[in-house]
Amino acid sequence: MAKKWSLLLTELVQVRGSALNRYGFLLCGDRAEAADLVQEALVRVFAQPRSSWDMGDAEAYVRRTMLNYFVDQHRRRARFVTATPRLAQPTAVAEHSEGVGLRIDLLAALKGLSPRQRACVVLRYYEDCTVPAIASQLSCSEGTVKGHLSDALARLGAALDTPRTEVEGDTRS
Q1: What are phi and psi of 72, to 5 degrees?
Q2: pLDDT for 86-126, tens place per residue?
Q3: Is a pLDDT exceeding 90 seen at residue 23?
Q4: In 3D, which of 64, 51, 58 has the Cα closest to residue 11?
Q5: Contact, 69 vs 114, CB < 8 A?
Q6: Handedness of CA 63, 69, 74, 77 (dihedral sign)
Q7: CA dist 129 → 7, 95, 123 (Å)
Q8: What per-residue confidence (pLDDT) applies to 171?
Q9: How far apart are CA 129 and CA 134, in angstroms?
Q10: What is the DSSP string of 106-172?
Q11: What count of Cα atoms within 13 Å lies in the side-chain half-sphere of residue 164?
Q12: Quick check: helix, strand or coil at residue 119?
């Protein structure tokens, strides 16, 4: 039985590991933290695997665990971050490709969102989830999700100096 889970874990990491890392990066905005987020989720999920899992079920469960862990971790850290002065800021690495400035601006704008707003934006525009699906994943009402999305899009639009209609993209529910 343990060998089956080991094979499933190995296959999941080989086939979907980069997608899980991208998802983690969009949630937290830092590659090292994203890798830690993936690692923590894999450990939590595969410590108690279910008997009827296939790779799709395991990946969905890992993504859900990543989302929950990110929101919980941010809530716990928030008290310490406000109390501890920041001694050094990370330095930006200049790249010589087109669109780098926009990418940096977007990442900076995403950091200005609350964890729930950021989770809603990532689930809506990266995972292509509907509002009811996001509400289900975050265990809140659809109105709350719409409020988080509206506030997040307003903040992103202001931070990027972009009219709100350009930020929103499509308006599916």
Answers
A1: -65, -45
A2: 555 666 655 556 577 778 888 888 899 999 999 999 999 88
A3: yes
A4: 58
A5: no
A6: negative
A7: 29, 32, 6
A8: 47
A9: 6
A10: HHHHHHTS-HHHHHHHIIIIIS---HHHHHHHHTS-HHHHHHHHHHHHHHHHHHHT--HHHHH----
A11: 8
A12: helix
Calpha distance 67→1 (Å, rounded): 28
- Tell me the C-alpha distance between 136 and 154, whole Å: 23
The Cα–Cα gap between 22 and 128 comes to 14
- Best CA proximity match to 7, nearest among 66, 39, 54: 54
Amino acid at 155: R
Looking at domain 98-173, its CATH class is mainly alpha
**Residue 131 has which token pair?**
């509002």
pTM of the model: 0.62
Separation of CA 172 from chain center? 20
Longest dimension (CA), the chain: 55
What amino acid is encoded at 142 in this protein?
Answer: E
Domain with CATH 1.10.10.10 in the chain: 98-173
